[in-house]
Amino acid sequence: MAEVGYFSIVLALVLSLYGVAAFVLALRHKSPALLESAKGASLAVAILSTLATSVLLYFLISGEYSIKYVYEYTSNDLPLFYRFSAWWSGNAGSLLLWLILLSWYTVMVAFSRKAKQMAPYASAILLLNSAFFLFVLAFLANPFERVEGWFPGGVVSNGSGMNPMLQNPGMVFHPLTTYLGYVGFAVPFAYGMTALIMRQAGDEWIKVTRRWTITTWLFLSLGNLFGAKWAYMELGWGGYWGWDPVENASFLPWLLASAFLHSVMIQERKNMLKIWNVVLVSLTYILTLFGTFLVRSGVLTSVHAFGNSKLGWYFLAFTLFMLAGSFYLIVDRRQLLSQGRSFEAFLSKESSFLINNLVLVGIAFAIFLGTVFPLISEAVRGVKVSVGAPFFNAVSTPLGLGLFLLMGICPLIAWRKASSHNLRDNFLPSAGLAIITVLFLVITGMRKPYALISFGIAVFTVSTIFREIIRGASVRHRLTGESYPLAWLKLMGRNRRRYGGYLIHLGLILMLVAVTGSHTYNLDLTRSLKMGESLEIGSYKLTYETLDVKVIGNGREAVYADLKVYNRANRRLLGSVEPQKVFYPTSDQPATEVGLRSTWKEDLYVILADWDKQGTATFKVFVNPLVYWLWVGGYVIIFGTIFALWPGRGSQTGARYLRDGAEVIHAQGKETA
Amino acid sequence: MRQIAKQKRIATQARIRFKIPGIKVPKEKKAVTLLMLLLFLVMFLIPAIARGEEEWQTRPIPLDVEKGVVCVLDGCMMNLAVCETPAAEKLRGIIREKMFKDGLTQEQTYAYLAEVYGDKVLAAPPKRGFNWVAWLGPFVALMGGGALVYLRLEKWVSSSWQGDEPEEATSLNPEAAQRLDQELKKYL
Given the DSSP bridges, would you call strands A602-611 and A591-593 parallel, antiparallel or unpaired? Predict the structure, then answer.
């Protein structure tokens, strides 16, 4: 059976290389038969990848521990749910997940009815990527490798088990969504490169890939959100984002894709920024490969890393190959890309988008530089340095606040040309509201400058978004005579792309508020208590009641403490929390289960850090304000993205306008899928 | 603390008793008393001192301090705030000693750690020398990018208006106004 899996990989490798050649030759010789054959090869690669994955899943679920991968990541006591998620818990399995997603994405592109001329080249590029992953799986990280010393007929009765930290629902959804996002960026990249190869630098590739990019962006957003939730609940340090190199590696493509989703609007409307958009889409995909290199190579220390492996260097080589290829194409076709129109005024929505792009790319650059700076420092000076959260917080906070301010200013500026008079009229009410909010916060005792600026910006931006919506609804009400609620609903429904974007901005503002609150006003306390003793933190009084052990199935035991939570002021019982340390039969290190009491105002977050035989226990207690809104903001972003993406009227590309004529042309609307 | 105070009180009383003038204490009794005092010292004071050491050894390190340190012992390289390995405990012991026993400030403790283990023990590179590349690089790049965007915009805007005649505001004819209204309704 293992041989079937391995043979599928090798055969898929051969077919993917054939597919690349067949697609290129079919285009060169204009041979429909060869094109069909190439499409068939891409389908065969996807089927063979699925077969290999099915074999691995069968082994994982049936407990075939003679397979090294199964042995290393599962054991007899592992629940079925986590046997399935073991698929992406290790190096080879996660590469197989990458491959299966990429191969089916390739099939979708190859058999797509849109942009039929572009599909063969795009498929060839995607198949080339698949070939690389298949090569890695076949020769460097074989998921079907047997354990050392195994002989035919030999039985291995148990495995060494999964890392307890991975036995959490968050670790099931976080990698899956992150990979869906990561791999998905290959498609816009492939179309972007195809546009350059075919010298068709118009916006056809953008129309084809817009949904891909947004969907992929959505998955990566979800991946980051699930990852943050997992870190918050499972790592037990009171935070949700640690600026770990691998977290950064998934944040970087997200930032660049966000920049692309904004700048693409300029190309759609003005046929400009073509080079910039191709650069952004290329860098986005290349950064996903770079992130994979970071995870696999072990050059940087990370909680996510799969350990040192020579595999990483193959990824680096492939990343550099893709970088060089795309760089060559962009430079070679730069004249083609530079055709376009002009901006009519300094003050316009177009120019504000440029600044938005500048800041987004600036943040990405800051994070990239910080992430690789340990390597640079060692290479240049021979001195090892660490770059962690204090650096990233210090550098990205001012840039991030600038970005949120722009988020508020952009809706105030008109397309083409905005007058300073209009901007001032639009700007002043929101700015006034923000200033009043800041003054109110100062009067109520808030003194931290960053928090004040951040909350001020949040109020300003939310205010501009709501003003935009109210103004739109009013105009519609005036023109159509519809009631205000109906006018508002129809306005949202018929311009879903635009208002979906505003919803995403609102979600991001909620996240800004949460991050500001939880970073600047969090409390923490570490205290050893005997049973019956209490501690006080923030508005809470916690009384330590009991410490006990319970069996929680599959050989796992949990040491848990029961703490009653009271309101510190009026001693009213609010509830209880039960922090735990869970011991797994296959691991020496227990996993942390946080005792959490979450409200819209703040999270009470309790960790059982230590205990002795007398029952004295040490607790780490955090009060993290506003964290609840981080998750709410995340789900608003998801809702906003789906709202914008949902097919039908309102999700199309915005109107294109031409300066030379006086008419507004809805050229894109009906064309765009 | 109460025990230490009690021991001090007893010791003071004993000293006073020895110094009472005009009363002669037999040598044997004096020796026995000294021995008892010695025993008392061994039994109570030393553990009390030891307990004092334990106090700083177990005092929790503020989370902000831990967040600024990387667990470099035994190559762990995780942030100390999230690391629970024995190496992390050892590093916490050193920090406790410097901060709570020797009375160093957070910055002084960081300086001490950097001197012993190198800059890699700090979670952010110290702001000196080559490290300024990391600290200032993003802002310099942003300013450079800003200048580039400005120059580009200037070029685009100026080329956009080249050869154009000044626009004059004219009122729309009824037909155009109707078309505009229809388009607007379509958009809405």
Answer: unpaired
